[in-house]
Specification:
heterodimer, A: alpha/beta, six-stranded mixed sheet, B: mainly alpha, 4 strands
Chain lengths: 515, 556
């Protein structure tokens, strides 16, 4: 570790009892954090633990509601991104913030272009960019357009940009989430190099193995609060997980009963609710996907980001058109040309991006719940049945325990968990036979998560076929009767009952083994 | 609803302001013209509202108006088509134009701005080429057809009466549909609030209907009372006048007895709502609105009793000394009317507030407040000479169109789909909505409305110059829609607001002329008013958002 205690014991950055509230959620509560110069501090926690919020506050994207931030032991207020930059803090977002229509050099100097005689000084940009790019080990011409680079290289450009403004604190939010293994390794080298140059890095990641190799110190967050700190030898997978979850991993949500409808014997009597044969998803044209889901069964799809799970669900729901293969629902071959067809044949999709695809965010709870079933219940095919709409809404609010002041509340102002319940309510209102869930618990708090799990179980017990995608390993393990694993568009395996375990899933998900 | 209230308030304010400065604004001639033009632009605005709701824009409206206005006289006068066939043909052309726009936008993924901008240029150029830039008209031979635009079917009093009866009948029918929800816990406080609110809103519709009918017909009663005839004869008299035969005007413009009538009838729904509310509310939340209501009621009573003698003698001697100023009786009455309006509005508004404060923020009872305010104002307007003004035919067409459009937007699945896809097209598609088809429908509706507008404009003006007819009309229509509560981001809008928005535009334009303000300033003033409207809208939205956040937090 380059951080030598005693040489410079004063923290570079200090956060004291920081708090932040959003409508319906306490995002951060009494957060403390210190960062030493030349230190790699990893920040870990489950989705919704408040990591991103904390980083946005440090980078000046959002103001805190309470608490103090000190830099070099002097209290500061970070009112804007520009101010954060002046203080030497730069945030590299999960989604990169580059203008991909501009060149690499132009991006590095965006907003503070050097000028000569009032014109942009291209030569300086070129020269300086080369220098900064070299320091992150990136060998590209500054005049290349950013959109021509791979994601990994774009990330390096972001880091070079941060270096060019003499950043002292570099915050990286899930930097490896869309990188290949090689790109990730290159990134780690750059991070090591930064540390040697005295730059402090706050590294947010879900990939605990990365954290183990990279971090000098780990701060764990849970439900918007500090949940412990690990230094040196203490940094290991189990210690991090137990602090993140706040209990033993085994005590994650437990299903009351599992069904094994896929077991021999029971299979003959049942027609699969959903049977997919040799489906070719347009995003991954090289692979054919086949599987089935029985009524009353909960099937999980595991895999890494980019494994093609969301694309598979979108294709099943008719958002994209398959290039081949067959889908049968209750034994009937169906043509799914658009979501309308999918809905008509009894499918509902809770999409990954709740705000963009799941909800009309400025509509009321009522209008959202009724949106998919409106036409079915309309009289003469066009007149809205307002009584049925009210009834469905009140039933959803009651059954899913949606916490909303009234049925006419605009969903934008509900918390993430309640918004997700509204999406579920929309599909329940049309009595689906098959429910597709894409990351159903992303970004919602623990309480709401458990409610959604319970609901999934109840629905399955009522005979619904549930197919869900999740990146949370514990969730897949706890919830699925059967787990399908995908790797780069390919269905690499199927796990049933006792076989469903973290190691088995990871082996299949990384393409190490296939069956 | 707040938005409609705001824009309606603006309309009333501009009207009163202009009246106070120059009372020829409320002269029958001027009123007739202003309402006619408001209606014509209202038709265009209703059409463009649908497109704006989908998040698109239609810049070709003015050119479509121009093209249709050229085609109609060409077909009728030069080609000798029957008027019916010609109207059908030009409407087909307009619908086809909309279909083309919609298909280009949804199938080829072109931007609405680009497609309709090209339309703006193309249809204008095409019309000029077609007519060789010559002026067209219908001459004197097609007065039957022209009645569509220049007919005067009835007076505003008759409209009020008829509208009130319709509303009453609708309200009674609506009451029949009111049934308790079986699965709800009737004892839960929120559920009880909601049920009571539903009851109040359901009953208030026929009540408002009765009120309007009374307001419309009270002039007949008055005639009956002063011995000049019976209600039926008066109705006949209106009919005669609407056919163009003059009858003597015998009713005073603001008779005292009718004021008392109106006052009494305004109290009925107020009292009804108050009693229903008092029956179920918990005591804590009521003090402020209660005080306001009682205060306003006292003021209203004072006004009615104090002002009545003034009106009575004003009719005898038409000059009045107010301070150092000598004013006409008509003007004094107008000012007094204004005061009464404000107070009545206050009473009614606070009753609405009471209802929503006592219950919850349910959509329907919020809608009740502006409805009551509008009724009160109408009831009072029904007593003035405005009621004797004739209704222009385009106004009837526009009202019919607005009702149909409103039902389409709010009561049918398709309207809901338009609103949903305007806010979030992706989520709408994921909910099984054929968003592309709905967008095409919106453009077709818009062009059809532009076609209808074009026909009426041509018939009205009777002299069509292909190079300039309808220029900038799309911008007036868009401005009216925006003023009336449509967001150019899509997903927001209501027909009533749009119609009022169109009226505001015309009244502003009229006010500038009447008040002798330089017409060079016309655009500047209209621009400023729209900007002010947009700013107020943003501010109000922020306040509403803040409240919603608090409400959500309270619920957890």
């Amino acid at each position: 570790m380059s951080q030598t205690p005693g040489k410079n014991p004063r923290p570079l950055l200090e956060v004291r009892s920081l708090g932040k509230r959003f409508p319906g959620v306490r995002a951060l509560h009494q957060i403390d954090l210190t960062l030493m110069p030349g230190e790699v501090l990893a920040l870990v926690g489950e989705n919704g633990a408040g990591k991103s919020t904390l980083m946005k506050i440090l980078a000046g994207v959002q103001p805190p509601d309470e608490g103090q931030i000190l830099i070099d032991q002097k209290p500061v207020t970070i009112g804007s991104v520009a101010e954060a930059m002046r203080l030497g803090i730069t945030l590299i977002h999960q989604e990169l913030n580059l203008s991909d229509n501009l060149s690499v050099g132009a991006n590095i100097f965006l907003g503070r272009e050097p000028t000569r005689f009032g014109l942009i000084d291209r030569e300086t940009i070129e020269r300086e960019s080369r220098r900064h790019l070299a320091s992150v080990g990136l060998d590209v011409d500054p005049q290349t357009l950013v959109r021509e680079l791979t994601i990994g290289r774009q990330q390096m450009v972001e880091i070079a940009k941060a270096l060019s403004i003499d950043a002292r604190v570099l915050i990286m939010d899930e930097p490896t989430s869309s990188l290949s293994q090689r790109e990730a390794e290159a990134l780690f080298k750059v991070v090591q190099g930064l540390r040697e140059h005295g730059v402090s890095v706050i590294y947010i990641s879900h990939r605990l193995a990365e954290v183990e190799t990279l971090a000098d110190r780990v701060a764990v967050m849970r439900d918007g609060e500090n949940a412990g700190e690990l230094v040196g030898d203490q940094i290991n997978h189990d210690a991090m997980v137990s602090r993140m979850v706040g209990r033993d991993v085994s005590r994650f949500y437990e299903r009351t009963a599992r069904v094994d409808v896929a077991a021999p014997g029971s299979q003959q009597q049942l027609t699969p609710a959903l049977e997919v044969t040799d489906l070719i998803v347009p995003d991954h044209p090289k692979h054919k996907v086949s599987f089935q889901v029985m009524p009353g069964e909960i099937v999980g799809i595991a895999g890494l980001v980019g494994a093609g799970r969301t694309e598979l669900l979108r294709c099943l729901f008719g958002v994209t058109q398959p290039l081949g293969g067959r889908v049968r629902i209750n034994g009937q071959t169906v043509q799914l040309r658009n979501p309308k067809d999918a809905i008509a044949s009894g499918m509902g999709l809770v999409p990954e991006d709740r705000k963009e695809q799941g909800l009309v965010i400025d509509f009321s709870v009522r209008s959202n719940v009724s949106l998919a079933s409106l036409a079915d219940k309309a009289s003469a095919g066009m007149w809205i049945d307002f009584a049925a709409e009210s009834e469905d809404t009140h039933q959803s609010i009651h059954r899913l325990r949606i916490k909303t002041p009234t049925a006419d509340q605009v969903v934008r102002y509900l918390s993430g968990g309640n918004q997700q319940k509204v999406v579920l309510g929309k599909w329940l209102a049309m009595n689906p036979k098959i429910l597709l869930l894409d990351e159903p618990t992303r970004g919602i708090d623990i309480g709401a998560k458990e409610e959604i799990y319970r609901l999934m179980e109840t629905l399955a017990a009522e005979g619904l076929a549930i197919l869900f995608v999740s990146s949370e390993m514990e969730e897949v393990i706890a919830m699925s009767d059967r787990t399908l694993v995908m790797h780069e568009g390919e269905m690499t395996g199927q796990l049933v009952g006792e076989e469903i375990g973290e190691e088995q899933i990871m082996n299949l998900a990384t393409g190490v083994v296939s069956r | 609803m707040n938005k409609i209230l705001g824009i309606f308030g603006l309309l009333i304010f501009v009207c009163l302001f202009t009246t106070v400065l120059n009372d020829s604004f409320v002269g029958q001639y001027n009123l007739y013209n202003t309402t006619r033009w408001s209606a014509l632009f209202g038709i265009l605005s209703i059409g463009v509202a649908f497109v704006i709701i989908t998040g698109g824009i239609d810049l070709s409206i003015g050119s479509v108006v121009g093209l249709v206005a050229c085609l109609l006289p060409m077909l009728v006068v030069e080609q000798g088509y029957s008027p019916t066939a010609a109207v059908l043909i030009v409407m087909l052309v307009a619908g086809g134009i909309g279909l083309l726009h919609g298909l280009l936008i949804t199938r080829l993924d072109l931007q609405p701005f680009v497609v309709t901008l090209c339309g703006l240029l193309f249809y204008r150029g095409f019309a000029r080429w077609l007519t060789d830039d010559g002026t067209l008209g219908f001459g004197q031979d097609y007065d039957g057809l022209r009645l569509l635009a220049i007919g005067k079917p009835c007076s505003w009093a008759t409209m009020l009466f008829g509208g009130g009866i319709c509303l009453f009948l609708y309200g009674i029918w609506n009451l029949g549909r009111l049934r308790p929800r079986g699965d709800q816990d009737a004892n839960a406080p929120r559920q009880r609030d909601l049920d009571i609110e539903r009851t109040i809103s359901a009953w208030s519709i026929p009540a408002i209907g009765v009120l309007l009918a009374v307001a419309g017909s009270s002039r007949f009663w008055l005639g009956w009372e002063s011995g000049t005839g019976t209600p039926l004869l008066e109705i006949a008299g209106y009919q005669i006048r609407s056919l163009g035969i003059e009858v003597s005007e015998n009713a005073a413009s603001m008779p005292s007895r009718v004021m008392r009538f109106a006052g009494t009838f305004l109290f009925v729904p107020t009292l009804l709502a108050f009693l229903l509310w008092a029956w179920q509310s918990d005591a804590g939340r009521i003090k402020k609105p209660l005080a306001l209501v009682i205060g306003s009621l006292i003021l209203l009573g004072l006004c009615v009793w104090q002002l009545v003698p003034l009106f009575r003698s004003a009719a005898a001697d038409d000059r009045w000394q107010v301070g150092a100023m000598e004013v006409s009786g008509e003007m004094l009455k107008t000012v007094l009317m204004m005061i009464v309006f404000v107070i009545v509005g206050g009473v009614i508004g606070s009753v609405g507030w009471l209802i929503s404060a006592a219950g919850t923020a349910s959509g329907k009872s919020k809608a009740l407040t502006p409805a009551l305010v509008a009724t009160g104002v109408m009831a009072l307007l029904g007593q003035t000479q405005l009621a004797a003004t004739m209704v222009p035919m385009p106004m009837l067409i526009m009202i019919a169109l607005a009702i149909v459009a409103s039902i389409f937007l709010n009561r049918t699945v398709y309207g809901r789909y338009l609103l949903a896809l305007g806010r979030n097209e992706e989520a709408a598609r994921y909910s099984g909505i054929n968003t592309k088809r709905m967008i095409v429908v919106a453009y077709v509706l818009c062009s059809l409305a532009a076609g209808l507008g074009g026909i009426l404009f041509a018939l009205d003006v009777n002299s069509v110059q292909p190079s300039g007819f309808g220029n900038f009309y799309e911008l007036y229509a868009i401005a009216a829609a925006v003023l009336g509560g449509c967001s150019l981001r899509g997903g927001e809008g209501n027909i009533l607001g749009v119609v009022i928005g169109a009226a505001v535009m015309r009244v502003l334009y009229n006010a500038i002329n009447i008040l002798g303000i330089s017409t060079k300033l016309e655009f500047a003033i209209i621009g400023m008013v729209i900007l002010a409207g947009a700013i107020v809208d943003v501010v109000v939205k922020r306040i509403v958002a803040k409240r919603a956040v608090l409400a959500a937090e309270e619920a957890g």
